[in-house]
Amino acid sequence: MSYHEYWRLHRLPFGQVNGREDFYEGTSQREAIARLRFLVGNARSVGLLIGGPGSGRSSLLRHVSRNVLWSGAIVDTILVSGRCDSQADWLHQLSTTLCADPTLHSSDAWRRICDTIDAASRQDVYTCLLVDDATNLVAESISSLINRSRHVTAVLACNTETAGGLVHRIGGCPLRIDLPHWALSDSAGFIRQSIADSGGEPELFNDAAIVRLHELSEGRVATLARLAELSLLAGAGSRATQITPEIVEAIQDEMLVAAA
């Protein structure tokens, strides 16, 4: 019997399952989405989405690319990874995502990217580029794009350490959108909603267990989800009836031993 069957859940409550990903809109996510709407709605050229490891930055970008509706304009939202080995690699990635007819040659890729954006603008379609894990190399290319077209908004997602380099290469003063770690109320809401959406009892984790999970994860979304999942697994193994702080502590002890 799997742990989600033990807890009478109809699916795994945390993370992606068969390509499906639930999204919990905590306080920091709501504020970030509002600022992204301001950025696009006011035709601002570029913004930085800054969040450290486990902040939920990538899941926020996936949610925005699939589900967020922009007001006042028709927007083509493109999500692309900024991880690349060279300028040619980056241009190929962007053209493959953006263009109907991508090419391997970097000069052709740049031309087709520009042509695609220009063609969209002639139809009053705005292009919003969401670039996850943006690098300095990517920022230089984005700077060229936003300087040649007023119909592009770029959102460069990065961590605090790399933000300064991106700003230097973009120039100007991009809108800064921070994605801080969750408060306790957000962590509690995330755990309870995830369990309820999976068909379980919202109180499967007792209050003290949620507090301890929040403390251990420091409000980092990815870490919180992983610890909660491991707690369910451990609780099922010990045939518990509810997740308690003791179960959470046992998970923490096992993780410390494994890391030693």
Layout of SSEs?
Layout: H1 3-6, E1 16-17, E2 20-21, H2 27-41, E3 46-50, H3 57-67, E4 74-81, H4 87-98, H5 106-122, E5 125-132, H6 136-148, E6 152-158, H7 160-170, E7 175-178, H8 184-197, H9 207-217, H10 221-237, H11 245-259
Parallel strand pairs: 3-6, 3-7, 4-5, 5-6
Antiparallel strand pairs: 1-2
Brief overview:
Helix content is 54%, strand content 14%.
Rg measurement, Å: 21 Å
What is the helix fraction of residues, given as a range? 40-55%
Number of strands: 7
**Mean pLDDT rating:** 90
Number of helices: 11
CATH topology name of the largest domain, in short, is Rossmann fold
Distance between the termini: 31 Å
Question: What is the molecular shape?
Answer: elongated
Question: What does the largest sheet look like?
Answer: 5 strands, parallel
CATH class of the largest domain equals Alpha Beta
| Count of separate structural domains | 2
Proportion of strand residues: 5-15%
The name of the CATH architecture of the largest domain is 3-Layer(aba) Sandwich
CATH superfamily of the largest domain: P-loop containing nucleotide triphosphate hydrolases
Class from helix and strand fractions:
alpha/beta
Poorly predicted parts: 256-260
> What multimeric state do the chains show?
single chain
If strands are numbered along the chain, what order do they take across the biggest sheet?
4-5-6-3-7
Helix-strand pattern, N to C? HEEHEHEHHEHEHEHHHH
InterPro entries: ExeA_AAA_ATPase_DNA-bind (IPR052026), P-loop_NTPase (IPR027417)
Protein name: AAA+ ATPase domain-containing protein
Organism: Rosistilla oblonga
